[in-house]
Design a protein that fits this description.
The structure is a single chain. With about 200 residues, the protein is of the alpha/beta class. The protein folds into 3 domains: about 1-30, no CATH class; about 35-120, Ribosomal protein L30/S12 (60s Ribosomal Protein L30, Chain: A), CATH 3.30.1330; about 135-185, no CATH class. The protein has helices spanning about 15-25, 35-40, 55, 65-70, 85-100, 135-140, 145-150, 160-165, 180-185, and strands spanning about 50-55, 75-80, 100-105, 115-120, 155, 175. The strands form 2 sheets. It has a 4-stranded mixed β-sheet with strand order 1-4-2-3. Strands 5-6 form a two-stranded parallel ribbon. Helix 8 (about 160-165) links the parallel strand 5 and strand 6. The N and C termini lie far apart (about 75 Å). Mean pLDDT is about 85; it is low at about 1-10. The structure holds zinc ion. The site of zinc ion has 7 residues, from helix 8.
């Protein structure tokens, strides 16, 4: 076995059955799910209920797919990538803690830097779709303007808030409504630059 001193079983699939057995005995069995664990911040894919890329976590809005996964009674844990600043993760931490999930942060080269957040069960759930598509594209498909999409986390006028509530009700968690006092103090709707 020319490559028996390799740390990783290079050429693994070309090895004969007996070589595999020997190699496993010497180095421990290879882990077919090592890539999965790297991608899902230490978890297996079968446990995962929702996953966000790091750039998605850094958006001001809360992804409603994640909010829904947190509320799911099967959810037990939320893992955050420690490379992301707490100003971006706080909104998810608050939600998860309120729902009684165990929240933990991991960091190190064994975790994919592209993965920002994982919500998971402590058992296999085998969900078909765990990735979350672009929030902007989804809202655009409901006829929401780019300006209003970008107002996530801000106060908007009654009309804009009503539009969100009627077209994509779950997205209301990402908006607040300007009140009368705001209007009197000259606050305007950031989605279009006036108060009505
Ligand atoms: Zn408005």
């Amino acid at each position: 076995m020319a490559d028996s001193n390799d740390d990783y079983p290079h050429g693994w699939h070309k090895k004969s059955e007996i070589e595999r057995l020997i190699f496993s005995g010497l180095h421990g069995a290879p882990q077919p799910n090592a890539d999965e664990k790297r991608r899902y911040l230490g978890l297996n894919r079968e446990q995962v209920m929702a996953v966000l890329f790091d750039h998605q976590v850094k958006e001001p809005a809360i992804y409603i797919e994640v909010a829904n996964a947190i509320k799911d009674p099967r959810a037990a844990i939320m893992i955050l990538n420690g490379s992301i600043d707490v100003i971006f993760t706080a909104k998810y931490k608050t939600l998860a803690a309120a729902a009684g999930l165990h929240v933990t942060t991991v960091s190190g080269p064994e975790y994919s830097p592209a993965t920002g957040l994982v919500v998971a069960s402590d058992a296999a759930v085998d969900l078909e779709i765990i990735e979350c598509g672009s929030r902007s594209s989804r809202l655009r498909s409901f006829g929401i303007s780019d300006a209003l999409i970008k107002c996530a986390g801000k106060k908007v006028c009654r009309k804009c808030f009503g539009l969100i509530k009627s077209k994509v009700p779950a997205e209301a968690i990402n908006y607040k409504q300007l009140n009368l006092i705001d209007s009197l103090t000259g606050e305007y709707c950031p989605a279009h630059g006036d108060s009505e």
